[in-house]
Amino acid sequence: MTTTPAPPPLDNPGHSSLNGPHAHFAERRGRVARYPVDVSPWLALPDDAGPGDWADLAALAGPGGELALAAIDPALPPGWEATFSIPGVQMTGEAVQGAHDEEAVRLGPADVPEMLDLVARTRPGPFLDRTHELGTYLGIRREGVLVAMAGERLHPPGWTEISAVCTDPAHRGQGLARRLVDAVAAGIRDRGEIPCLHGSASNTGAIRLYEQMGFVLRRTTVFRGVRAPAAGPGATRTPTTTG
Description:
GNAT family N-acetyltransferase, alpha+beta, Acyl_CoA_acyltransferase, transferase, acyltransferase, 4-stranded antiparallel β-sheet
C-alpha cells in the first residue's frame, strides 16, 4: 500500500501552523481553524476544502465576517466575496544563519502600545494586540523610544516566518531592519529551524534587502481577504473550540 506524501509545510503555511506548532491558538470547526481575532487574521483551510469545510469556515467567521488567506488562492464558493488580493512572494533562508545583536531587546506585553504605534506609522502588515504571542519579537530603541522591530509570525513545522519588519521613517538608512532580521533569524536557527518570509511583490526594496541577506524566492503567491456569506447553514453548526 502506498501513501501520498504530505505537501511541503510552506505550500499552505496557515494550515501547517495551526495544525502544528501553533495548534494551541486554533479556534476550530471540523477541518478548518483560525487564530483568535486579536492574534492574527490568518486561517487554516485544507488544500482539498469542500462545501462542508467552507460551511465550517463561515461559522467561524460569522455572518458577513472577514478572514485572510495566507499564501493560498482557492476558488471561492457561491456566497463568498473577495475583499482584497495582494500579489506576494514567499522567500526561504536555508543559507541564512543570522547574527545575535546586543542592542536588540525582547519585546513583550508591556511594549504592545509602542509596537502598535510603530506598526500604524509604518504599515508592515497585520499586527494586532496579541500578535506578539506568536513568537519572539525584538526591537531597537533610541533614547528609550522604540524605533525598529521584527518578529516571528507563522510557524509551519521546521520553519518560522519573520514578520512585522519595520523602522520609524526618521531612523531609516541605518541598517536597523537588516540587523533585526538577522537577530530574529539567529534565534530561529538556535531552535534548529529555518527562517522564511512573506512580502508584497511590489515591495522591491525589501525583497532586494532579503536577497542580499541570503533569502531566495521560493514562489510567487497571493494574499487574499474573503468575506463569508451574510447568512447560511454554517452559522448554525457546532460551537467553536480552541485546541
